[in-house]
Specification:
This protein is mainly β and 167 residues long. The protein has one domain: Beta Barrel (Cyclophilin). 12% of the residues lie in helices and 34% in strands. The strands form three sheets. The chain has an eight-stranded antiparallel sheet. A two-stranded antiparallel sheet has the order 5-6. A two-stranded antiparallel sheet has the order 10-11.
Length: 167
């Protein structure tokens, strides 16, 4: 199973991708890592006791153009537990592209329950295996509203580099 080191301005986070249970999500993430897409993007949304989100916004809260959305595979059996990494999306269950979030606690209400609009859930594709202390530190930063977005860190938290490690 592949791992990705997400280097940030607050420290490194290592996630283990679950290519067996989440092949679409893992492959999508690896594609963007190899492309260098995440470099220079923000962790732009932080809600303590819930999650930290990043992977699609540039400094100044500008969207970074992404590729085509992927199929939601939230019915893969993986759960939104503390340290799990899942795709952010719009109300459309199949709209995830690059934005992801790391759960700060068990968030079972985000799990798949059915294949209707309410039950699709948020597809987990990995788990933090090192650097959860960095994620917890992110959860403690001061946030504000900026350019129509809430829960934005006052001081930018940048992803400086992502590195793929294949086992």
């Amino acid at each position: 199973m592949s791992k990705v080191i997400i280097s940030t301005t607050m420290g490194d986070i290592t996630i283990q991708l679950d290519e067996e249970k989440a092949p679409i999500g893992a492959e999508n993430f690896i594609h963007y890592v190899m492309e260098g897409f995440f470099n220079g993007t923000l962790f732009h949304r932080i809600i303590p006791n819930f999650m930290v989100q990043g992977g699609g916004m540039l400094p100044g809260m500008e969207d970074k153009p992404a590729g085509e959305p992927i199929e939601n595979e939230a019915d893969n059996g993986l759960k939104n537990v503390r340290g799990s990494v899942a795709y952010a999306r719009t109300m459309d269950p199949h709209s995830a592209t690059t934005q992801f979030f790391i759960n700060l606690k068990d968030n079972s209400f985000l799990d798949h329950t059915s294949k209707d609009m309410q039950g699709w859930g948020y597809a987990v594709f990995g788990q933090v295996v090192d650097g959860m202390d960095v994620v917890d530190a992110m959860a403690k930063v001061e946030t504000t509203s900026r350019r129509g977005h809430q829960d934005v860190p006052v001081e930018d938290i940048l992803i400086t580099k992502t590195t793929l490690i294949e086992d």
